[in-house]
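Q: My labmate handed me this sequence with no annotations at all. I'd like to see what the chain might look like in three dimensions before we decide whether it's worth expressing. Could you predict it?
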Amino acid sequence: MSHRLPILTIDNLHLRYGDVDALRGITLEAGTGEMTFLIGPSGSGKSSLLRCCNRLETPTSGKIYVDGEDITHRSINLNRVRRGIGMVFQSFNLYPHMSAQGNVMLALRKVLGKSRAEAEAIALKQLERVGLSDRAGHYPNQLSGGQQQRVAIARSLALEPKIMLFDEPTSALDPELVGEVLKVMRQLKDDGMTMLVVSHEMRFAKAASDHVVFMAEGQIVEAGPPAQIFDEPVHARTRTFLQEAYH
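A: Here is what I predict for the chain of 247 residues:
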């Protein structure tokens, strides 16, 4: 059982789009260095929760604390907050006219004001971290989907975030390319990165995560260590979802 202090605390979070309640009272903690997996059917609010965690969405009510700071406060500097919260999307969002190294360098230059030489060195280091130092000069159209996603991960890592959010990071990839992205995520966990992951990769969740949270209809139905959720789920809804997820 982990006793690490929570670096992320979500307290009674609600998010409403018009007449739709996307999130209904989410309360959740993630300890430093832990990987928390969010699972559940489509439309259950998982991605909305991630987007609230880096303030791409503004919660209707409730609080989110990152390293003790209330990032839902109206006076918060969102640009500063987002520098500490990396996000990896389903689509890679790379600039096609820039090399892998150029894509990783961009925020270092524009956001952090690093010199070109320093940004180049950091970018190479992060590309090496995701196993792509030999592809630094390649453009996105010269890279596989898995390689492009790893460049996107390196881009987030370059800003030295406290937390990494992954929103279906492998769902746009051909099956044979999924493993290389999961391998990088496993390495990040081993390096002590705190991660909140939305994914359908159930076997990876069972093998690598510290906590699994099953969501449905904007609420947490069940949460616990992976052995409990996957092997001894309490709720019938969780059991049904997992039976279908494993076919």
